[in-house]
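Let us practice reading a record.
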Amino acid sequence: QVQLVESGGGLVQPGGSLRLSCAVSGSIVSINIMDWYRQAPGKQRELVATLTSGGTTNYADSVKGRFTISRDNAKNTVYLQMDSLKPEDTAVYYCYFHITTMTTSRGYWGQGTQVTVSS
């Protein structure tokens, strides 16, 4: 069974950095699309960053130049490096990957990790 396990959230001061991780476990054939979303209280979930299997990245305008999505193929782990954090980055962050297994090809969500940016 495929699972996505996130880690790395926490409390950080404005201007600080955090690195989120999303590790995939289970028997998979390929990870096709890797997304990071976030949801702040009272707001809709928004797409923050995307990494395709071909290496193409895309970022929301609000995080461009501050966040970096990357992948460690050997560890089946995707990272979101967040620098120059702002209070408005406070949210629960979720990874969402489109994964192909021997029997299915669909999206999977991580459990979410809280990021709080506050002095």
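A brief commentary: The chain has a mean pLDDT of 96.
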